[in-house]
Each structure stands twice: as structure tokens, then as C-alpha cells.
Design a protein that fits this description.
By secondary structure, this protein is mainly α. It has a single domain, classed as M75 peptidase, HXXE motif (A middle domain of Talin 1, Up-down Bundle), CATH 1.20.1420.20. Helices cover 54% and strands 1% of the residues. It has a two-stranded antiparallel ribbon with strand order 1-2.
């Protein structure tokens, strides 16, 4: 017996083939688009299944990595006088945890739990986890001079600073929690023309021997609470994608008729607005504090693992504590598929060699990928750089960033073939 899907295909095809008059061109085009949608529906379902599996495993790994970080922070902050090597160990654990989390950023803007407070108990999680850029003056002069409590830190996460009350006159965001607040607590400010990660913080900034009211004791408590908050929020995201929980988002996601178009729109907005827009174009003026992880100089890893997150969905694969191999986006993008694949490869042209706390994590670099320190490389806009730094800036500015923008444009075109319009809202396309 002919299936309903095949019958629909035959009827639609017959309508197109039996009426080829010129005035029917537009109608025929719409029918052919309908045929494409009917034929691709099972493939979309397979992709949504793989997407949900990758989301769960990726958030599970990010959560586990932050648990490991929090455990180290708990031990560190319990000591009256922790050591420098112990502080460096925390920094390494922060970097390792970022690798997992950054791959989840590709789930942004797709109406999922990371951006949709309706799915997470009314709490919008992303601003509490990865808001950027933050004003370090706010942390120094408002947070660290007050009473440190866990709920107080959450309440102090005030978002954009405006008006005449911005600490140090800095209009960056009044951020008190999340990845970058923890980063600042561990490294401290990365002063202009300081071509290393922040060096103003040492183990003595966490010495609690002088009592709970001391500046160091407050910083120590702040570090622990902020890490515990991040851990709790990642658990919410992990549980949101857990297929074994009846309250999770997964069943609704896989059954929704809009999930696929939401994903296309979300990836386009993340690529063309956040990742290849604000974050990358923000450093074209050579300002170090505009880089995404300016305190740790982790920015190359930020950009690389954002690309890796898209790579995962494109191929339908994920390699972490568990391996996923399923149905990829590449099978749904038509003529744009190979074009997007090439641009993802370009977006990954970063050598991850800035791990000063544990040099064993550094990669060997070659001249075809960005190997310079990111802050030195972007500074060549305003000061003379080495031959390598100048060449690396050109790779970043004229190959990598345009490739990420082109991913957004290609997804706009791909979506149109499904009858979905992705406008320029939220995009910073050049």
C-alpha cells in the first residue's frame, strides 16, 4: 500500500507536470517547495533526534566539567593559605570546562532552554552564565566591598550599565556571576598592552587567615559561590535535555513543527550576530578588553569551540564522555552543504596554545592557522607586530570572521528553500 507521504508526493507531482502554462510558474514553484518539505520531514525528524542527543551529552559534559572545577574550588577556598600551584590548577580546570560549554553555544537563539525562561522555571539562564563584556570595576567596587552571599550575587547580576552610576565610568555590563565573573576572580584585569593573561591576582588574594571580613576572604567566598551557581544552572540545562525525565524539554522539542526552523534561525543568529558579529568585529579596533575572554586570553579557544559546536551538528556527531553518531545538518542543507562545510573548517583555524598554567595542553602550531597570542595579534591594528602576528591578524580578519558571517548568510538561503524566512534581525552581517 502506498504510504500517505508517497501519495501526497505523487498527487503534488502530478499537479505540477500536468499544467506547465507560464502563468502557473509561481504556483508550480510553491508546489515543488511543498514536495521538498514533505520529502524531508522524516530526515528532519532524524536530525531533531540527533540534535537532542548531542545537546544532552554536551550539556552533561559541561556540567560534569564544572562539577570538577567546583570540587577543586571547594578544596582551594577551604585552605587558609592556598598555594600558587593550586590557583594555577583552578585556572586549568576553568579552561577545560570552557571547552565543553563553548560547544553548547550553538544551541543559542533556537527557543531552547538556554534562552527561554518559560522552559527553566522563569529564569533566563544565559545572562547568568556567559554574559559579556563585564565591568571589573563593578565587581571590585560594588560586589567585593559588600556582603557576599549566593543569592546576593545572583541579584546583583544587573545587566547593562547606563546613566551616571557606572563604576569607573565603564558602560560594560554589571555582571556578577557566570563564566567571566569567575574568570576575572581567577586572573584579574588584563591591562592594556599587557600581552599575557591577567597577572594582578595571586594566591594571596584568597588567603583567609585574616578573617571572614577581609578582602581576600570575600574573594574566596565569592569564587566558591559563583562556581556553585554556575554548576546549578548547568544542571538545569542538562536536565532540560534529559530524555529520561518526564518534565524535560525533549519530547516537546521533537514533536514541535517549528523546531527545525528555530534551529536554522538560531544558528544563523548566533553565527552572524554573536559569534561572527559582536565578538569578532568588536576586536577590529585593537582593544584588548573587547576580546571575549580578555582576563585569561582564552579567546582563541572560545572561537574554536564555537565552531566545533556547529561542526557537531553539521556532521551529526559528538565526541565527549559518550560518542554520538547520527543524522547531521549536512543532509538537510542542499546546495549550501559543501559551502557551509568549507566555512566551518575556516572558522576552526586557531591553534590552542595559550595555556600558560599547564603548557602540556598547548598545541603545536603551523603557519596556516592563528598561532599568535590573541591579544598581541589584535593589537597590531594600533602598534607594530611581528611578521607572524600581522599574518595571523589577516587570517582572522579576512578569512575566519568572514567565513563565520557567510555561514549565517548560507543558512538564510537554506532556510528559504524550506519556505522559512530568516531576516537580518539580531545579525551583524557585513
Amino acid at each position: 500500500m502506498t504510504s500517505m507521504r508517497n501519495l501526497t508526493f505523487v498527487l503534488l507531482l502530478g499537479l505540477v507536470l500536468n499544467d506547465c502554462t507560464p502563468e502557473k510558474e509561481n504556483s508550480d514553484a510553491n508546489l515543488l517547495a511543498a514536495i521538498a518539505l514533505v520529502g524531508s520531514a522524516p530526515n528532519q525528524s532524524a536530525f531533531l533526534e540527533t540534535y537532542s542527543q548531542i545537546a544532552f551529552e554536551n550539556y552533561s559534559d559541561a556540567y560534569s566539567d564544572v562539577v570538577a572545577l567546583r570540587q577543586k574550588v571547594t578544596t582551594f577556598t577551604a585552605k587558609a593559605s592556598p598555594s600558587l600551584s593550586e590557583l594555577n590548577e583552578l585556572k586549568t580546570y576553568w579552561r577545560k570546562a570552557r571547552r565543553s560549554y563553548l560547544q553548547t553555544e550553538i544551541f543559542r537563539f533556537s527557543q531552547g532552554p538556554i534562552d527561554n525562561p518559560a522552559l527553566t522555571g522563569g529564569v533566563e539562564l544565559e545572562p547568568l552564565m556567559n554574559a559579556w563584556p563585564l565591568d571589573e570595576g563593578y565587581i571590585d567596587t560594588v560586589i567585593l566591598t559588600g556582603t557576599i552571599t549566593k543569592q546576593g550575587l545572583i541579584d546583583a547580576n544587573g545587566g547593562d550599565c547606563s546613566g551616571g552610576n557606572c563604576p569607573d565610568g565603564d558602560s560594560a555590563k554589571n555582571i556578577s556571576v557566570g563564566w567571566h565573573a569567575i574568570e576575572y576572580l581567577l586572573w584579574g584585569a588584563d591591562a592594556q598592552n599587557n600581552f599575557t593573561p591577567g597577572t594582578s591576582i595571586t594566591q594571596t588574594n584568597f588567603t583567609t587567615a585574616n578573617g571572614a571580613g577581609s578582602a581576600a576572604a570575600k574573594r574566596s567566598a565569592y569564587l566558591l559561590y559563583a562556581t556553585e551557581i554556575l554548576e546549578a544552572h548547568l544542571l538545569l540545562l542538562k536536565n532540560s535535555w534529559d530524555p529520561t525525565l518526564s518534565t524535560s524539554y525533549v519530547a516537546k522539542f521533537k514533536s514541535s513543527a517549528t523546531s527545525f526552523e528555530n534551529i536554522l534561525r538560531g544558528i544563523a543568529r548566533f553565527s552572524g550576530g554573536e559569534w561572527g558579529g559582536e565578538r569578532m568585529t568588536g576586536v577590529f579596533g585593537g582593544e584588548q578588553e573587547e576580546e571575549h575572554s580578555c582576563f585569561s586570553d582564552n579567546t582563541k579557544a572560545d572561537f574554536y569551540f564555537d565552531a566545533k559546536g556547529l561542526d557537531n551538528l553539521y556532521n551529526g556527531t559528538y565526541s565527549g564522555s559518550k560518542t554520538i553518531s547520527g543524522y547531521g545538518l549536512k543532509n538537510l542543507l542542499g546546495n549550501e552543504s559543501s559551502y557551509i562545510k568549507e566555512r566551518i573548517a575556516t572558522a576552526e583555524l586557531f591553534c590552542l596554545n595559550e595555556f600558560t598554567e599547564d603548557v602540556s595542553l598547548n598545541q603545536a602550531c603551523n603557519s596556516s592557522i592563528v598561532s599568535s597570542r590573541f591579544d598581541r595579534m589584535i593589537a597590531t591594528v594600533n602598534v607594530s607586530g611581528s611578521v607572524t602576528e600581522n599574518a595571523d591578524y589577516n587570517i582572522f580578519r579576512y578569512q575566519i570572521q568572514p567565513a563565520v558571517q557567510e555561514i549565517a548568510k548560507a543558512l538564510q538561503r537554506s532556510a528559504a528553500s524550506y519556505g522559512v524566512s530568516i531576516g537580518d534581525d539580531g545579525l551583524v552581517l557585513q
